[in-house]
Amino acid sequence: LQSYVPTACAAFPHEITYIPERIAKLRYKKLTQFNHLPRGGHFAAFEEPKILSDDFWSFVKNLEKSSKA
């Protein structure tokens, strides 16, 4: 199934699986953010909460900017 809602992807270097950006774009038609983050893995929210939350809020701020344009 394809998704047409704004989507962000955080790619962590020690994740169990990795989805390349070009593949993610095939499924997520409004992939607005795809970041390779410096540290973390499958349990990124526990391992690197600051990195993950900063990436999330960056996505939210970009959505807010684009909705006002």
From TrEMBL:
Superkingdom of origin organism: Eukaryota
InterPro entries named in the record: AB_hydrolase_fold (IPR029058), Epox_hydrolase-like (IPR000639)
MF annotations from Gene Ontology: epoxide hydrolase activity
Keyword flag Hydrolase: yes
Entry keyword Hydrolase: yes
GO biological process terms, semicolon-separated: epoxide metabolic process
Keywords carried by this UniProt record: Hydrolase
Family: Belongs to the peptidase S33 family.
Entry protein name: Epoxide hydrolase N-terminal domain-containing protein
Organism encoding this protein: Bracon brevicornis
